Amino acid sequence: MEYQIxxxxxxxxxxxxxxxxxxxxxxxxxxxxxAQSEGMADWVPVxxxxxxxxxxxxxxxxxxPPQNLIPLxxxxxxxxxxxxxxxxxxxxxxxxxxxxxxxxxxxxxARRLVNNNIAMVLVAMYPAGFVAGIFAISAGAAxxxxxxxxxxxAFIFAGVLAYVVGIFKIRAAMEEYYNSKENIAxxxxxxxxxxxxxxxxxxxxxxxxxxxKTGILT
Length: 218
What we know:
218 residues
């Protein structure tokens, strides 16, 4: 059985019983910290889980692992993201702008998760390709050059392709981080990522936010 540990607003773990005993003996977890396992309805003091293990001297007390946790992006409910995108379909530009902005927010978060800029670069190519494509198509129409039109559609297609790859890079960053530093065994569906992109990712961000608050991953 594994236990989550809570100290103030911070949560750590999960840890096995043996790890919990070791961290208490080392002073990295305190007997006054709260603990909860998957089968427990309430948080209880670590002392209640372990029994009579002596509390280490204050000089030995260290901060519990893990360190340097990355905060979540804005915890906008996935249903709100879906509603904005549905309404945006009727307003055109609203959908495009929201998709650009929210994708960049998630890509910037992914950059911090794995210390890699690739998702940010790929997602940024989406609006760049769109703008370049519209400009080329307009220039072609004004000059009567069909080749510019083809070039414009190529820019737009390249931007969309880069966006899709960027979304999968965000997915990979989430799985890497939440299976190592904050291990919750996160697994994201490739098909759902492809078809629902930022809506699907935001749904899992909502799940992670709830886990950080309650210690329960639903």
